[in-house]
Amino acid sequence: MMRACRRRGERSVFVAMMIWGSVASAVLLVVVGAVGVAMGDEESALSGAVGVLVATAFFALGASCLQMLLQHVATPTMMAGAFLVYGLQISALFWLYELVASASWLRGSWLAWGAFGATIAWQASQVWAVTQTRQLIYDGGMPAAVTAEGVSS
Hints:
This protein is mainly alpha-helical.
């Protein structure tokens, strides 16, 4: 996947994150579904799949928003924008929880394990993407040297 991405000239760390995170989530979705069905409980499989999809949406939304933020926002305001993105993600999770919490088919432990597995998969794929593309996500510049006389530029 990454080699194909490089051949087309797309060397963005965010593209790599989205590709590897989506692949990891798709594999995990199949595994969770297969385990749930093998255990004879379709509702558990569905709950685990919802957990995987919720975590996938959480990370995909965050990566997409941060990519736009880093491309179009000045450096001093990036942290405020990152907190805004995080607040958007948490708000979306709250409303999703309100929708799904009363579902009779929901198995909480399967939902939680699916979301936990997808979180680990996305974190690992993000680390993999950053190490494979070897690009800085942002350029904050080098810190100034501090000497006995003070800060030198």
